[in-house]
Design goal:
The chain is α+β, with helices and mostly antiparallel strands. About 60% of the residues lie in helices and about 10% in strands.
């Protein structure tokens, strides 16, 4: 198992991270990607991020609104819905419990 598994771990938690990024208020895709990059998750391409945003919108976890701009192309702004906040709280708690279990198992194995 020499392959770097971070990409698959990231895919498993990306929906949750996108929801978490919207707790600070509405945002558009590029800004969400910049927030996640600044948080240490690396550069996220649109081909990865926008399907997640579409899926979250279809599940009514985020709401989207297109806004025209004076200069350049318009943007879709995303906001967290009440259902999205609930899912974030529930799934976030499950993720933290999972993280604790993984850390405990690795510590017992002597991994620091």
């Amino acid at each position: 198992m020499s392959a770097d598994r971070r990409a698959s771990w990231f895919k498993g938690v990306l929906d949750l991270l996108v929801l978490a990024s919207l707790t600070e208020g509405e945002s558009y895709g590029y800004e969400i990607a910049k927030r996640l990059d600044a948080a240490g998750f690396g550069q996220i391409r649109g081909g990865t991020l926008y399907p997640v945003l579409n899926r979250l919108e279809e599940a009514d976890l985020v709401a989207a609104e297109f806004r025209a701009t004076e200069k350049g192309p318009g943007r879709r702004y995303y906001t967290l819905t009440p259902a999205g906040r609930q899912v974030l709280a529930e799934q976030g708690a499950l993720w933290l419990a999972f993280d604790t279990s993984v850390r405990d198992a690795l510590a017992r194995a002597g991994v620091r």
